[in-house]
Amino acid sequence: MMIRHLLAILPLVALAACAGGTPSPVARVSDFGADVRPAPHSKVPAPVKAGRYGIAASGSTDPNATLNWCSYSGTGKAGCIQTATAVASAVNARVLASGGASASQMLTTPSITGGTAAATDLSAALALATGATTALTPAKRHSQTYSVYDFGAKCDGTTDDAAAINAALTAAGKAGQGGTVMLGATAMCRFGSTLTIPDGVNLAGLGLHSSQLKPLSASFSPQISVAGANSRLSTFQLLAGASDIGYPSGGAVAISLSTSASPFMNSLDSVWIDGPCIGVDMAGNNNTVRASYINFVTGGAGCYGIRVGHRTTKAGTTDPRILDTTIATDQSTSGRPDADLEVEDAGGLYVVNGDFLYAKRGTIIRPGANQYVTWLFGINTALGDTNGAGGLLIDTAASSAQVKGLEISGSWTSNAQGPGVEIDNTAGGTIAGVHFRGHRAYTNAADGFDVAASVKDFVLESSHLCGNGARGSAIFMNPGATRFRITNNTISLACDGQTSNSGTGINLGGNNDEGVVTGNDLTGLATPIAATLSTPVPNLVIGSNMPTSTQLLSIPDAATLALSGTYDGYGISTSGTTITGMSGAWNGRHVTLYSANALTFAAGGSAGSAICNDFTSTANIPVEARYYGCWYLK
Question: CB atoms < 10 A from the CB of 265, how many?
Fold first, then answer.
């Protein structure tokens, strides 16, 4: 009777489901066991106790109980469907399968728990991300993100994955609006030829030591080439050179941003480069290296951590940026590269929050033929630290080269085996407008600053030059250097915890004109300011410096008084000699002469030291002298 009762009611249930206002599912009586044939009475199993179906054992009915309707097979197996909510759910969801299989059926809103969907095409399936408003297909969701593994990369540390990685990069570039190619985590992808980054593509890893790229040899250059615009390299390590593959040399490039296509708006973000000859070669427009570490730059001559503008002329490399980046190099005699940073051609270069260590020189700014380095911003950067030959070198490599309008503030050049800052003009180009504010030059073996004769508009303000070596001065203005301003600096014997090994603060080498030297602290130095003055008499402003403006320098009387040391006041011990000249003149110089005895001056004398008017002083009354072509006394 149970079988007949079930078979009789199931079509009604199915019909009721179809008529119940839910048109989308199709209800079939076969879904509910109507195709189970009645078993012979002899094989029908004994009735199951009512308690199994939610009816109390005592025979009383629980109003909240759920009844199960079952069909029985000849083997005694029971297939049960709950009444009410279970049947309705089965109609709406088509199948509620637990531990079974549903073949060749369309499943609408299926729930699969603890099972496996094999060989299933989900390409058209929609999935809604948490918190999102629009469901996407897998193809749409991953339309701009590619894994190198999808293109056959092994990243097992031995296989040449160049073709696979380039295929992924090409696929990402075809999107027209760019995409991201992901390197695996805790993986080393090897490559035997150049990896080329198309327009708008981001090659990204999952961590500086987690995702690694390593060439199979150091014999090809560049290792990675950014060929177009709006591309990005981020968050991986490039092992450009290593003991097992050798180290590049001879100008070989690890990452090139300097193709003939003039790269535009590309960036390196959080990339670690180990063992290159040239870590990054920059050209083009608005390209950026940010928060990166270029380590163990090696290869000797022609190698640099970053090289800027090698392929361009007339400041054709425009607005490049080097931000929050550290460059550290090989310190061996044979492997030490020429510089951490080499700038050859750039307009509007930003160097901000950098640290450049150990190379022969920290930074070299040296344009060649028709190359210009103009309007540079150097901010809060160690332009050279612990370098072999010097900290910062500014020079020219051709007579057509130009260096103009450099503004450097909060900078550092220290512990060099040569000058902290050296400004030359070897090839006779143009160097005009090099300004330092808030610079620190500590414990350099030679001059803190060494400025060539043909440099114009040099400025050093509010800086600290401490502990420099016996081989030089804190500041040396070479003979002929003109149009300079050295103001408000600390250059004392002991400053910032450093003690100078040189007794000379500021050394004006000779024929220096149109210079201003004021407000400097030169306390404790044997020669605070040394000035070799010559004719024609220069135009200078030197004053208000310590101690030359706060102390008297004692000198003996003579026919020509030697006003050495650029002091503002001199004490003269007289023996009655008539004074006919005073050396050490520059136009506008004002000195005060003190003596316990009367001083006698006679008009006349040689150019550059002549006395304008006869004058006899009164004992213990100071004499004021000003030079404008000759000394005026009163």
Answer: 16
